[in-house]
Specification:
alpha/beta, 11 helices
Length: about 350
């Protein structure tokens, strides 16, 4: 069944991101974010006062203080008062909220931004706070250990092996060589096992970064951008919270989100997948049917993906921005963008973007 056509045509018209780094101790979140906001507004010639709605994605757990996102508004400029919202999620979900705001006609333009500073603490420990508080969290399995559990399940099922995972890492780092914003580029030292069967090269870098996009509706999008990246469909779904009741070799939520977003209606030429671990790309490729039929020629993660730069809370939004930029540059006509959150691909968002016919 075809995905329903959105009530309004909405597009990504601008995208900017930081140069992602292992640490940015000399910068506050606001100082890290402000250049990105200036860049994304400059691409359209707009000012903050021209934006109809603003939405951000971040997490207080990384900052270590409640309502830390309110400080980031200093970088946006919240006076005179603006229409603003925040999600305690990756910025891809902030984009979804902004998309619905434009969809119902409450605004014609929206600024979406996300940021995360992972360097001050132990991300592996912080992410345990996502787990079931009664049965899983008390065991303190960190994010890498859980990803390794998923990788071993894939190996046991015959879906992959260690050389195949190494090939994913190699391809991603090679693609990142052309991405000036990537944190890691070039060859992949396999290194020691982080948690068996995942080696350090199978895992994402820890780093700091931010990203922002501007959305616009209808003719306003064409006024702001020569070739807008139209969001033809977007949907997000969630798996069961309990890891023990899930098949870790599959991602039904990704498949369902893709169906509702219209991914399977016709082939895509680009896929930006938010797969922080090499094994997760294996799961996503299967769920999104990227290795079947004509879709086997899809360019996957031409930016290098999350294996090259993984700023927590911004990496998913970056996948949408990177896909949109390829459309805006004329390098893609129909692209898929994916974002995830939670352990072992628990929550998944899928968007389809298209450019005007050339």
């Amino acid at each position: 069944m075809p995905a329903p056509r959105p009530l309004r045509d909405i597009a990504v018209v601008a995208f900017a991101q930081t140069d992602h780094r292992r640490t940015s101790d000399e910068l506050s979140e606001v100082e890290m974010l402000m250049p990105v906001l200036h860049q994304v507004l400059a691409q359209t010639g707009m000012r903050t006062s021209d934006i109809g709605f603003t939405c951000s994605g971040s997490t207080d757990y990384l900052a270590g203080r409640a309502f830390s996102f309110t400080m980031a508004l200093d970088g946006v400029g919240a006076w005179p008062p603006i229409s603003e919202s925040h999600v305690e999620m990756d910025g891809a979900w902030a984009l979804y909220e902004a998309w619905t705001k434009l969809l119902i006609g409450d605004a014609d333009t929206a600024l979406v931004y996300a940021y995360g500073k992972s360097s001050p603490g132990s991300v592996r420990d912080v992410l345990t706070r996502q787990l079931d508080p009664y049965y899983v969290a008390p065991l303190w399995p960190d994010s890498v250990a859980l990803a390794a559990l998923q990788a071993q399940a894939l190996i046991d099922a015959g879906d992959t092996d260690e050389p195949a995972l190494a090939a994913v890492a190699t391809r991603s780092r090679a693609a990142a060589a052309g991405n000036s914003h990537a944190q890691l580029r070039g060859s992949v030292p396999r290194g020691e096992y982080a948690v068996y069967p995942l080696r350090t090269g199978d895992c994402p870098p820890i780093g700091d970064g931010a990203a922002a996009v501007i959305l616009a509706a209808g003719e306003r999008a064409r006024e702001l951008c020569e070739r807008p990246a139209w969001i033809r469909g977007i949907d997000h779904r969630i798996e069961a919270h309990g890891l023990g009741v899930r098949d870790l070799t599959d991602s039904p939520s990704t498949r369902l989100a893709a169906e509702h977003a219209g991914v399977f209606e016709r082939p895509v030429d680009t896929a930006e997948l938010h797969a922080p671990f090499t094994s997760q790309e294996v799961v996503l490729r299967k769920a999104l049917r990227l290795d079947e039929g004509p879709d086997g020629d899809v360019v996957v993660n031409p930016s290098g993906g999350a294996l090259a730069a993984n700023p927590i809370m911004a990496a998913g939004l970056i996948r949408i921005g990177e896909a949109a930029d390829r459309i805006r540059r004329g390098e893609s006509d129909r692209a898929l963008a994916h974002a995830t959150s939670g352990p072992c691909l628990q929550q998944n968002l899928v968007a389809v973007l298209e450019g005007d016919p050339r």
